[in-house]
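Running this now, will post back.
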Amino acid sequence: MNDEPPRIEVTIAAPADTVWHALRDKETIRHWHGWEFEGLDDEIDLIYFDHMTEDPAARTLSVQEGDLIRLEPDGDGTRVTLTRAPRGVNPDWDAYYDDITEGWATFLQQLRFAVERQPGAPRRTVFLNGHNTTGRDLARDLGLGDAGTVDLVGEKVTTEPWYRAEHQLGVTVDAWGGGLLVVASCEPTEAKPDGVAMAILSTYGLSDDQLTELTNRWRAWWTERYGPLPD
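Update: finished.
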């Protein structure tokens, strides 16, 4: 059995000072952490500012229950390494340990995207999650794979792979102002008897009407396949 805490590494094509700023400026964090919801600002404070230890000179940041983020030069870019705290540090969080690891994998890729593709640009998001009792492959349901033009929930778009992980896929989407789509899914397991399905749509420059239309279309598509969305 491997007891080593998980490590997540992402290399960002930007100087360490730029990446560090993206980790320490609250408004910039809103451009990549998670998704928009009423409690986003409170969540940012809780994770990155209320209970943390930082060393700007060493470019290290310890957050939550000891998750360590380290920035190191990597050629012309910056390697960001997140090492999870060991299980058992906070038993109340152990039930969510794997979920938090998956979340960090998503957020660090969203950080890379924000810094490399949309520096300083405000984003608007659509977040969808639900059960996956039949073990559907969300990426396959959406027709995602290699780069190319696809009919994405009734909208003709051009996508390019951004990253792949065991349970996740990220693709760029030209039609959303140069946006990013992250999807994750897994079949039911003993730990997750209902399975998992999740999507984060990061958009840029859409009008209120365009965002509303996109949201409604995706929610309808999602409900047909993965059940009603939580309130």
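The mean pLDDT is 93. More later if anyone needs it.
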